[in-house]
Each structure stands twice: as C-alpha cells, then as structure tokens.
Amino acid sequence: MSNTRNFVLRDEEGNEHGVFTGKQPRQAALKAANRGDGTKPKPDIIRLRERGTKKVHVFKAWKELVAAPKNRPAWMPEKISKPFVKKEKIEKIE
C-alpha cells in the first residue's frame, strides 16, 4: 500500500490553507515550492503541518530555471522550473 501522508500549508499567523500529499514531508514541500516564487538568494519559508499530529515541518524553498532533460516530450519547453527545499527545523504546536 502507498503510505501517503497529508500536509497542510500554514502561514505565519497559523492559518491553514492548501493540502499537499507525499510519503515524506520533503516530497510535499517540493510540491508547495513549485507554486511559490522564492529564489535562491531570497527563499520562501514553507510551514507544513502533518495532519493528525502537532508537528510543523519548516523548509526554505525556491525554484530555478534549468534545462529540460534530453529525452523531453515535444510539448515540454527547453527550460523548466525545478523546485529546491532545505529543511530548517520541526516545530511543535502547543
């Protein structure tokens, strides 16, 4: 079975909006980073709370334009946006 977990995107005030799924928090963070507009010099901060727990995973996230793979389909552009994340910490909600 696939053990996918649900992670809810939180802002600084604690408001929750958007659900991202993945087997690991990093996988969900990559999906969230692809929607953001952070850059490497100025990354976005992504806070993901795992549903059913009081853990909040905090990531720095950005995306860069990179060359598409050599075996890309005809519809894919030559440059694609690739997300990057770096885990900062895990916070506990009281």
Automatic annotation (TrEMBL):
Keywords of this entry: DNA-binding
Question: Segment Disordered: which positions?
Answer: 1-20
Q: Which domain of life is it from?
A: Archaea
Which ranges of the sequence are coiled-coil?
Answer: none
Alphabetical list of Gene3D superfamilies matching this protein: Chromosomal protein MC1
Output the SUPFAM superfamilies linked to this UniProt entry: Chromosomal protein MC1
Write out the function statement from the record.
Answer: Protects DNA against thermal denaturation and modulates transcription.
User: Mind telling me what this protein is named?
Assistant: Non-histone chromosomal MC1 family protein
Which organism is the protein's source? Methanosarcina baikalica
